[in-house]
Batch of 3 targets.
Target 1
Amino acid sequence: MDTTIQIADGIHHGLAATPYHADEALGSTSIKRILESPMAYRWDADHPRTASRAMDVGSLIHAILLEPDTVGTAFVEFDDGQALAWPTGSFQEWYRGAFGFTGCEGMGIKEGTDGFKAHYASQPRTIVRASDMETARNAAAAVRSDPVAALLVSGDTEVSAVFTDDAGVRLKARCDALPTEGEIDAPRGPTALADVIVDLKTTGKRAHSDEYTRHAIRRMGYGTQLGHYRRVMREAGQAREHAVMVVVEQAPPHHVGIFYLDDETLELGEAQSRKGARDWATCTEAGQWPGYGEGIVSIGLDGDDLERGHEFAKREVLIDVSY
């Protein structure tokens, strides 16, 4: 049976995450991987990744702040203070009660077995440790306690947008928040929140501008992501020209950083979104997903490194013979 989901073009409020992610339209993550290399994109598409503990905590913080009604249905916590570690008897007993799993063909619950993996993957709820639930709640409270951050994550949340470009490539975006009222004092002057796309991020590093240099923005693809969002939102029928990231640290005391992406970066991000879509169409038609394609590349040291290296090569080793 074909389980493919195809969401109609346009803006969608209240669309659950599951059908959004099941739609094979190109999101910003796919665009970034295609730009890295078509081969990288193809590998990810064929080998879905398992979420890490840090990713689960990030998803939980998002849910608490943006979709609080889904926390109870999307997550279930166990008390890691009672040695409920994989695959102890205590955890097995707890898991049976929470999910009704009694084993596969006589096997007990054991992480790593195909039976357990299949059963866990079928569950609508993600298991999180009680300590991680506390971390997520404290991080969410830190965002709410920052007046600007709290304003930014208000309004319409988890809004999905889909559109089909002139070449027939379907693209999608899921904006964390689209605030509707008020304004912020952005670097370029007062900006109406009704014209802002907000992306909520959690980090294991610092939510400080030192971590969000131009190198980090390029490496993490933030401009590509939010430029893609801006493009898809505009084409789907709801133009918003500004983009802001609200970043909260997962570790206490949960500092909150707010970062405004300048227009030049977003324009480049839109251009990269268009290129990613073109590359995907070209590779799909050809049935080929090439790698970096650099061929034989000449590499070497620059002038200063060469000079220091030659100077070092001339030195003799010093032996102390005074004793």
Target 2
Amino acid sequence: MEIINNTAPRIISLVPSTTKTICDLGFQDNIVGYTHFCIDPPNLHRNKTCIGGTKDPDIQKITQLRPDIVFINQEENTKTTFDELTARLPHTYLHLSQPKTIQESISDIQNIEQLLQVKSKNIWSQKLNDRFQNLKLKTNSKAKTPALYFIWKEPYMVAGKDTYINDTMKYLGFKNICKEQRYPLFNKTHLEEKPYILLSNEPYPFRKRDAEEFYQKYKTPKEFIHKIDGQLMSWHGTTISHFLNRALRKPFEITQPIF
């Protein structure tokens, strides 16, 4: 594991959930660059530079900021971005991650803690792991409800296997009935098991009118169409803490009927 021997590393994060994690670990003041999707914590943007989006960051601006570390995610960011930064910043450490499960995300937090030499009072990984084990004990033996998780409209896209969302779904008591990998296009065969329809508020912000449109087109019972908190379901890193709180105590706050 790489360790940065610098008590004040200059950090750029191209991953919104990792940006939050870095702040929670006590390194908000070290962040010099962020994307315009990095919305948490709300006060992040003071005296820092926005370097564009997650898919199309300004490489020149990143280079000019002279970072010691750049945090990148294989799903959020592109290979082109990684390759360009590798070429332009040969002495910068590029932390590349792609957690597809809660357990992998906790391991990634631990790696970041080691990388930044986080003080013991700010360590999150062990506490998160303890609470996650409690959630596993609580949910593993329970029957799962068939469900389909929508992330996009026009065209409709759903979360498939081999995704972080697929993992969080099962700890809310859902069985993801999408058998394809990653984020396939929705098709009518997905409805054969009569699943609950979970409409996320991000990246596409599904609203009641979208649910009404889906109902009119596919005649899914209205009581089966729910809204779901996309940030809790898809953000890895320390956001896991909020997911575990809700999943252990108030899972009904993560998903609620739309109608």
Target 3
Amino acid sequence: MLGIRKGPEPQDLKVYREKTPKATYKGFQETKSVRDQLYADQGGLCAYCMRKVQYDPSMSKGDREQILDFTIEHWSPQSTTDRGLHWPDMLGVCNGRLVVQGELEYICDKARGNLVLTVHPARDHATIEGLCSYLRDGTLCLHGKAEDEQTLNLNAKNLRASRKIVADVIAQKTMKADITALQQQLQRWEGRDSEGCRLEYAGVALYLLRKAIRQRESKGNRIRKTSKKQS
């Protein structure tokens, strides 16, 4: 997962919530403005698995296929709370389906159903990336939040395989790189392209690059300490 800094509440949502008697999410029709803001906030990635979602903010309102691929997720289950129109609880997620060679896996909100989560990518944006570590085989370890990892099925086989591709690329780039080169790579993975989109599975690369930088810095400190003692 990546930390998400949410932008302002869409005006359509705010007006509907404040002006409509007994307003409910089911009755809210202008969902495109919400999707557009979530897409911008999240850099075009799913809030949970970091897959790139197939969504074009310039699409017409009625493009059903793209709407289905980018779902508005309610962090607090609508079935058990009255927070359906609560902007801080809204996240954008993928379609929740992975199909490879005829094998279907459910992930993210499709795996979750109405189960309760404890970690919130937006509310916990400052700390969430520190909870996540990734192994070379693509396995995610959500430290202290293993129940969320299982609820969202974030270690589905096909997700692990996709994250492993990124991990392998970073392993090659960090093998002989110095700190300057690693920091340049880090900036690339932290950034966005000209359309505001982030690189798919960016959290994997960020974790591995930061780890490599810490290791280089630690090695440099040991060398300097040894040199001082010898002098």
